[in-house]
Amino acid sequence: MSKIYHHPVQIYYEDTDHSGVVYHPNFLKYFERAREHVIDSDKLATLWNDHGLGFAVYKANMIFQDGVEFAEICDIRTSFTLDGKYKTLWRQEVWRPDASRAAVIGDIEMVCLDKEKRLQPVPADILASMMAD
User: Fold this and answer.
1) Which of 46, 93, 119, 122 fits 102 for a cystine, CB–CB 3.0-4.6 Å?
2) Is the pTM of this model over 0.70?
3) What HEC string does 99-120 produce?
């Protein structure tokens, strides 16, 4: 398992429903942003543009334990592990300020694909750079 990466997310009014609580699909966006910071945007662009490889969500499971509200700044805690040569498993948690447990837990499975959507091994240099941080 990798180290735990931290990514702050400001909760905007547009992220919430009529009651001021985050609309549940928005957590997938927060998780995506946090993963992009772990891998690095420039590396993802180079991987796609120069090598025709990218990552896609294969499976996502989420547990909602607490509501997250407008104006909070939450900590998205992310860790990952390699599961075979094609897939990475990500544990992502949304932590509210001063919370004693995660508000939302996401277990995300990502696969590496080429432009024809065929499985490809996760590039060793990408994995190495993610583990080095």
Assistant:
1) 93
2) yes
3) CCCCCEEEEEEEEEEECCCCEC
